């Protein structure tokens, strides 16, 4: 009589050439084993079907797993029972459409873009540089005004949920653009540096546009009277460049969004604060759907693009194309089918993460990795 160990459907399993993770997405408990030697067919069965056959090679491993109650044993004679493949099933006609026509229609791929950041004008002079502005998704210092009329025309064929305006924009252009987004029920977040406008102006536009959210970039140099305003729909994003900046946060007395920013890759003092231990990663809570989604896509940037003030369309600091050469629908349509599409940059595609079994519990690939600030969330 043969025996199989079947893992419960709510358990996410990741087996690599040297590691094994069994993660219970209901109880949020796990077994993480390193230096595990598994045959290739067992790796495939675990990852795809969630079972493993009991034999001399797997008996000790199964004893350890079964003691944590991640599944159950079944017996069979000659015929293997039917076990369905475990995977995320995405209902899409993209592949069928491309096979039939040889390409995808922009009208379909347009629906995949859900949010957009527009990098506007930036006339202020601060200690921040090009490298740090990329991390903030804020425009580099420039005196060029983005062509909002052209952008508005480009966006008419999309069904966006959110737009982030990042930088300075004249009041008349801001008002006109917000009228456009209100008509289309698009949430707008206005990200501006505290030096860009007077606080009276910020209060004025908050009161004028009742659905607008302002994300104010502040730092350790920001006057305390600005940090103590209690305005609805006003969020404070605190720029941290050193450990000493962290100590000053407690004096603010309100919730702020912490944003580590590095001025270059050499003087990096915050690395140790950002790196997570494997135990911290294992203690994170994820649903089964979240685990399977992170096997396919990068949730941190999927559906999001950035348009620079010069018309460059980017994703996670990678230039895709320019609006001066091609319309946005055609840019997205062409990019989605390419190997360089950052929306599908899952952690299992990163060379240093492929053999790690806890890759889906780890934070998604971020701008910090792509700028070589650190190798991955658990490695400096």
List unreliable stretches of 5+ residues.
none
Radius of gyration: 25 Å
By DSSP, the count of extended strands is: 15
Largest sheet: 9 strands, mixed
Order of helices and strands: EEEEHEHEHHEHHEHEHEHEHEHHHEEEHH
Structural class: alpha/beta
* Average pLDDT taken over every residue: 90
Question: How much helix, percentage-wise, in residues?
Answer: 25-40%
Fraction of residues in β-strands = 15-25%
Count of helices?
A: 15
Strand order of the largest sheet: 12-11-10-9-8-7-13-14-15
Global morphology: globular
Distance between the termini: 50 Å
Description:
The structure is a single chain. By secondary structure, this protein is of the alpha/beta class. 29% of the residues lie in helices and 21% in strands. The chain is built from 15 helices and 15 strands. It has helices at residues 40-49, 59-66, 94-101, 106-109, 130-136, 148-155, 171-183, 199-208, 224-227, 243-249, 271-274, 278-282, 288-296, 328-336, 367-370; strands at 2-7, 11-15, 19-24, 29-34, 51-53, 71-76, 115-119, 162-166, 187-193, 213-218, 234-240, 257-260, 304-307, 312-315, 318-322. The strands form three sheets. The chain has a nine-stranded mixed beta sheet, covered by helices on one side. The protein has a three-stranded antiparallel beta sheet with strand order 5-1-6. α7 links the parallel β8 and β9 (187-193). The chain is globular, with a radius of gyration of 25 Å. It starts with a strand and ends in a 10-residue tail after the last helix. The mean pLDDT is 90.
């Amino acid at each position: 009589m043969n025996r199989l160990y079947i893992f419960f459907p709510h358990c996410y399993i990741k087996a690599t050439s040297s590691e094994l993770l069994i993660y219970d997405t209901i109880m949020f408990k796990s077994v993480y084993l390193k230096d595990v030697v598994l045959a290739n067919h067992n790796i495939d069965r675990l990852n795809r079907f969630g079972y493993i056959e009991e034999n001399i090679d797997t008996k000790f491993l199964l004893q350890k797993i079964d003691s944590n109650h991640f599944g159950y044993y079944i017996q069979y004679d000659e015929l293997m029972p039917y076990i369905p493949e475990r995977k995320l099933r995405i209902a899409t006609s993209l592949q069928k459409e491309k096979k039939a026509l040889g390409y995808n229609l922009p009208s379909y791929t347009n629906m995949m873009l859900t949010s957009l950041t527009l990098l506007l004008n930036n006339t202020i002079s601060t200690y921040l540089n090009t490298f740090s502005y990329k991390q903030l998704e804020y425009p580099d210092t420039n005196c060029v005004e983005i062509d909002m009329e052209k952008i508005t025309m480009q966006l008419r064929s999309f069904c966006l949920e959110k737009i982030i305006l990042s930088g300075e924009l004249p009041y008349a252009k801001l008002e006109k653009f917000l009228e456009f987004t209100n008509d289309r029920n698009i949430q707008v977040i206005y990200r501006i540096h505290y030096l860009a406008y007077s606080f009276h102006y910020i209060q004025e536009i908050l009161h004028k546009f009742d659905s607008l959210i302002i994300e104010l970039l502040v730092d350790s140099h920001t006057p305390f009277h600005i940090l103590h305003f209690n305005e609805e729909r006003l969020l404070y994003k605190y720029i941290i460049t050193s450990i000493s900046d962290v100590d000053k946060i407690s004096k603010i007395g309100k919730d702020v969004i912490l944003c580590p920013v590095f001025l270059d890759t050499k003087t990096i003092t915050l690395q140790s604060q950002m790196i997570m231990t494997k135990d911290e990663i294992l203690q994170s809570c994820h649903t089964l759907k979240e685990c399977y989604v992170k096997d396919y896509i990068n949730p941190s940037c999927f559906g999001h693009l950035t348009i620079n003030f010069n018309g460059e369309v980017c994703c996670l600091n990678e230039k895709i194309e320019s609006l001066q050469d091609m319309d946005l629908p055609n840019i997205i349509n062409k990019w989605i089918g390419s190997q360089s599409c950052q929306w599908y940059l899952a952690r299992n595609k990163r060379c240093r993460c492929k053999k790690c079994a806890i890759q889906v519990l780890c934070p998604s690939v971020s701008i910090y990795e792509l700028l070589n600030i650190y190798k991955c969330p658990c490695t400096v």
